[in-house]
Design goal:
The chain is mainly β and about 775 residues long. About 5% of the residues lie in helices and about 50% in strands. It has 2 helices and 39 strands. The protein has a 24-stranded antiparallel barrel. Strands 1, 3, 6, 7, 8, 11, 12 and 13 form an 8-stranded mixed sheet that branches. Strand 7 and strand 8 (about 160-165) form a beta hairpin. The longest helix has 22 residues, at about 10-30. It starts with 10 loop residues before the first helix and ends in a 5-residue tail after the last strand.
């Protein structure tokens, strides 16, 4: 029997946790002793916390997209919205009213979005869970745990198209992707109408979707957001400062009045069946995968059970991910790993509780669920036998426990993964937490890997955030250099952002179930972004940003350094320009860098300088375009990157997207994999990476999408994913999916070749609520 060493928590991490508890207790005690508690919580420069009232009804209102049902008039309208963009804190140019009702089982929202020119309302998206930033939309965020850090997002456009998501630890997302992570799917209903006065919405959200069962003294955090596309105007009910926005849950208002509700217990059983075929090429021989065509026929089940309010258990047996979205191909211009987000539903469900960022802009994470069930080298799926997790909040603590078992597949031995995460909520979006991760494997050379860590996020005066963490790993045959320590500071207001971070990553720090761009690093990063808003015709904002990244190894030998100055301009119509005035690199290669097929950049220290020009057109039109040119030196030669992206939305049913990037290399000395120099012309090559996507929506519930991608650096240059989805009842789907190539990208550094797999699958899911 193999014995595993006990996980030892770093001594520095213990002191770190004690210090965080001490700071938290002192701060909370100071607040409690400061005087009588006010009715409304102060929120810095913004007005005191806003309070909305829900009104009880005995019968559900009519949910037809109008507010004609007399029940809606029983609720007091919420009207006092404020602009976040373009004029912070000013009254909106269009009026918005929100009414909130509830009964024993559901909460209802009736919204009127008045519009002085309804003919110019923008609504062209019928696909569920895609970004709606190109449309008008209305958004509700609900912090049902009232922890001031996490929330559910419910978003709808004037066509009634739904998008739902989870906001975790107040993390902002890219402005064109919408608030929160859309991987979470809830059961809720919405209907809309476009009228002569604007557009109206009725929404019903079951308490079970929020896994909420408490019936007395209910207070939720809540916020409302409206976006008017043609004016590029964003208005919020609370948290309207530009430094905040809807993702700043600590700045949301409160919803009072909900009491005496039904159990709302969440219990969903969702079986699936799948059939089809899969084909591997002859080149897969000897890799553990079987060349040729094989039939697919399998089934499994997912179960979701609410244990109590805001605490849910998920179970999965013989899990399938055939319906997960394909990764977007990227060509790696660095010797480090590229980050690809998780897209599989089981792992996305309440994923925020397991979030343990390790700092930096590379996406480093102590736990990264894509390391489970996907071969990190080939991108092939690794079958999951079963898995389970419990996530949620309990008495001021946020909890997450997960266990997943995978079976042997190809070069991947069977493995078991166990994860535990605990966070203690503090004031105003602050927390402290600990995490432990264990992996046991059938690989005799790598039989186990253990990771432990502690982290904190402390918010002061709403604009100042301090972060810190301590982590360590344990792997067979390694006894030192397995720690990772870091601290950061972030200050942000409406016109200035300052960010700084210091990390020390040991040479043997190895979180096998996490994501880490580099090891053996003393990483320092500083960024300053000045965002003035001068009164220039047609211009909304200017950005002047500069950063420096300095990364020697733990022996203080410089490995990477980059400093950059950037100028951006945002126009009132949504167009923008983003230009890197100068981007200066230093990179030391300690092993040859495989940049392209059998072309390697030799060991050495390199210095180069690059520049960038970018322009994006207005986003309110049917046709949008983005142009990008990046040029200058690169290692000991030159590199030109040219990119064009275009989107044409013919109507609400049909859209096309094109993205093409040309990389033209003119390198000096290059070698092969053995280190022998190649002829001078071997460094002259081009790589084309691109995609073409088309979507057709027969309705909100029946959609067809096709994604074609190409990467000339790969032996098999083209790939495709074609998917027909019929959402025939809430949370139940029928899929027809054809894939040529890989759906999941490799997570290793450089640009490794991948197998070209052809597969066709029919997948049927049916959601039961016993």
């Amino acid at each position: 029997m193999t014995s595993y060493p006990k996980a030892i928590f770093p001594r520095s991490a213990c002191w770190f946790v004690l210090l965080s508890f001490s700071l938290g207790s002192s701060f909370l005690n100071a607040q409690q002793q400061s005087g009588p508690q006010q009715k409304e919580r102060q929120t810095g420069a913004q007005q005191p916390t806003r309070i909305a009232q829900a009104t009880r009804v005995d019968h559900p209102p009519k949910l037809d997209g109008t507010l004609d049902d007399p029940a809606w008039q029983m609720a007091s309208p919420i009207t006092n919205f404020r602009q976040r963009e373009p004029f912070e804190g000013q009254p909106p140019t269009e009026r918005t009213e929100v009414r909130v009702l509830y009964d024993r089982h559901d909460v209802y929202f009736g919204i009127v979005c008045f519009d002085s020119d309804p003919s110019r309302i923008v609504a062209r998206e019928l696909r569920r869970d895609v970004p709606q930033e190109l449309d008008d939309y209305f958004e509700i965020t609900i912090d049902s745990a009232h922890d001031r850090r996490n929330a559910y997002v419910f978003q709808v456009n004037p066509l009634g198209t739904q998008r739902d998501a989870l906001i975790t630890e107040e993390q902002p997302t890219e402005s064109d992707q919408g608030d929160g992570d859309p991987g979470w799917d809830g059961v809720w209903t919405s209907e809309t109408r476009i009228t002569k006065r604007g557009w109206t919405v009725t929404i019903a959200i079951p308490f079970s979707t929020l896994n909420f069962m408490r019936s007395r003294d209910v207070i939720w955090g809540i916020n409302f957001k409206r976006f008017i596309r043609r004016k590029n105007e964003e208005v919020l009910w609370s948290g309207w400062r530009r430094a905040f926005g809807a993702s700043r849950i600590s700045q949301a208002g409160d919803l009072h009045g909900i009491s005496d509700i039904g159990s709302g217990r969440l219990f969903i059983v969702k079986p699936y069946g799948l059939t089809g075929f899969s084909h591997f090429p002859p080149s897969a021989a000897g890799t553990g995968f079987t060349p040729g065509t094989s039939a697919l026929y399998t089934g499994g089940v997912d179960v979701k059970l609410g244990l109590r309010s805001n605490l849910v258990a998920n179970f999965t047996v013989n899990t399938d991910f055939a319906d997960a979205d394909s990764d977007t191909l990227q060509f790696n211009l660095t010797p480090y790993k590229l980050f690809f987000p998780e897209k599989r539903q089981f792992f996305l469900e309440n994923a925020g509780v397991f979030n343990f960022p390790l700092g930096g802009d590379s996406g480093d994470l102590l736990f990264f669920s894509r390391q489970i069930g996907i071969d990190p080298i080939t991108g092939e799926e690794v079958p999951v036998n079963a898995g389970g997790k419990v996530t949620g909040s309990l008495d001021g603590f946020e909890l997450g426990v997960m266990d997943v078992d995978t079976r042997s597949s190809g070069p991947n031995p069977s493995a078991n993964y166990a994860v535990a995460r605990v966070k203690r909520s503090l004031w105003g979006g602050s927390y402290i937490g600990v995490m432990g991760i264990g992996k046991s494997s059938g690989n005799p050379f790598d039989s186990f890997n253990q990771t432990s860590g502690a982290d904190t996020r402390l918010v002061f005066y709403k604009d100042l955030v301090l972060t810190g963490y301590a982590a360590q790993t344990r792997s067979p045959g390694v006894s030192s250099g397995q720690s990772n320590l870091g601290a950061g500071v972030n200050y942000q207001n409406s016109w200035l952002e300052i960010f700084g971070q210091h990390r020390v990553i040991g040479p043997n720090f190895n979180p096998e179930v996490g994501f880490l761009e580099r090891t053996d690093c003393i990483c320092d990063y500083a960024d300053v972004n000045f965002k003035p808003r001068p009164k220039l015709r047609g211009v909304r904002a200017l950005n002047f940003e500069g950063f420096i990244f300095h990364a020697p190894d733990t022996k203080h030998v410089l490995q990477t350094q980059e400093w950059q100055n950037t100028f951006r301009m945002e126009f009132n119509n949504g167009a923008y320009t983003d230009n890197d005035i100068v981007d200066v690199f230093t990179q030391r290669l300690t092993t040859p860098f495989n940049i392209y097929k059998n072309v390697f950049i030799p060991i050495g220290e390199y210095h180069w300088t690059r520049h960038q020009l970018t322009y994006g057109s207005s986003r309110e039109r049917k046709l949008m375009a983005n142009f990008f040119e990046r040029f200058g030196t690169y290692y000991d030669g030159r590199l030109n990157e040219a990119q064009i992206r275009g989107t044409y939305r013919a109507n609400e049913r049909l859209s096309f997207s094109l993205a093409e990037q040309w990389n033209r290399f003119r390198l000096g000395f290059v070698s092969d994999s053995t280190g022998h120099l190649l002829p001078p012309t071997s460094g002259n090559f081009s790589v084309v990476v691109g995609s073409f996507q088309t979507n057709y929506s027969f309705s909100r519930f029946l959609t067809l999408s096709a994604l074609l991608q190409m990467d000339t650096a790969n032996t098999q240059a083209a790939s495709a994913n074609i998917r027909l989805r019929w959402n025939y009842r809430p949370d139940s789907d029928l899929f027809f999916i054809y894939t040529a190539g890989q759906r999941f990208a490799s997570l290793v550094a450089a640009n490794p070749p991948q197998f070209y797999e052809n597969s066709f699958a029919i997948k049927f899911t049916y959601s039961l609520r016993p």
